[in-house]
Amino acid sequence: MVEADLDRILQAPLPWGRFAGRTVLVAGAAGFLGVYVVETLLRMNESRNLAPVRVLALARRGEALEERFGAHGSRDDLRFLVQDACAPVPRDEPVHFIVHAASPGTPRAFGRDPVGTFAANVFATRELLELRPSDGFLFFSSGEVYGLGNDQVIPTHEDAYGFLDPTQVRSCYGEGKRAGETLCACYAAQQGVPATMVRIFHTYGPGMPLGDGRVFSDFVGDALAGRDLVMRSDGRVSRAFCYLADTVEGCFTVLLKGAAGTAYNVGNDRAELTVLELANLIAELEPERGLQLRRESAAAADPYMPSPIRRGCPDVSRLRGLGWAPRTGPQEGFLRTLKSFR
Question: From which residue to which does the signal peptide run (predicted)?
């Protein structure tokens, strides 16, 4: 399943030759999105007749890197860097591309460690930009930068902004992403760093964390365990759900073809579902299991900090202008996700 996804990403008509003989630093390499970025580059080395790209996989925990990439064994094109992304990166070899995907990404993490969430998006971003990569810098931002008051601007384009209350702890993520984007734009303008930003909307797929409080994560976890799906809301909130391979292909498109200092939405604008619709879709993917949907109240002690935004769907016309389009609908995507865990 994963190898098929990687091959499909590499089939995209992108200038993959730009990576030949270069070094790519991936911060947050053990995370859900970072893993697919690293695996795509390693797969390219195995399948393309190009000078190999060298991947520096950075994560805070060496055990996580071993768990994610240990199957590769010892290979010359992969090196682990075990450290916090906010710490200075060793400058013992040139770095040509940087992909900054190091940040907590779940509302439960925002409640547990708001300081670390903000730091990963601001202080780590500045530290990585200071490496001044010559060929490309990609910052993984989020649709949360659009804030509140934008529910009427659907699909949401890159120039539409709502507001965030900076005194609310929940803003650690959205404000952190906004500040990280501003740093990228400033380094592009003042220092000539070829920095681009991707505003990633809800993404699911193989390797996604299960049971982290996000509805699509919890629903998939329930389905895999053979449990009835539990919904802790009225089910009317809607989000656009994008399959992992499509999201990562979009990220590579921006890294290789995007304009410096520019942000691009990445998401599936044709896969907006309410929570109730999503729950029913996942329950019905494998009808022989007889899964049902039931409602429960959220636990009072749960640190999960839900978003007050009722509707989210990106306008991806800017990214489509670079030749990208999502290729996987939610029915196929969630079925592939379920099968990947078995």
Answer: none
DSSP class of residue 100? E
Within a domain: 120: yes
Range of the domain at 74: 2-208+241-270+310-329
Report which of 100, 99, 97, 101 is spatially closest to residue 132, judged by C-alpha positions. Answer: 97
Whichever domain contains 324, its CATH number is 3.40.50.720
Q: Are 88 and 126 in contact (CB under 8 A)?
A: no
Q: Are 184 and 341 in contact (CB under 8 A)?
A: no
Q: What is the pLDDT of residue 284?
A: 92
Q: In the numeric block, which tokens belong to residue 98?
A: 């940087």
For residue 293, being part of any structural domain is answered with: no
Give the strand pairing for 242-243 and 203-204. Answer: parallel
Q: Total structural domains in the chain?
A: 1
Using a cut of 0.85, tell me whether the model's pTM lies above it.
yes
C-alpha span between 226 and 259 (Å, rounded): 46
In this structure, is residue 123 part of a structural domain?
yes
Residue at 94 is within a domain: yes
Task: Determine how β-strand 23-27 pairs with β-strand 54-59.
Answer: parallel
What DSSP line would sit under 223-278, residue for residue?
HHHTPPEEE-S-S--EEE-EEHHHHHHHHHHHHHHPPTT-EEEES-TT-EEEHHHH
Residue type, 258: G
Closest CA to 85 of 144, 18, 140: 140
CB 232 within 8 A of CB 297: yes
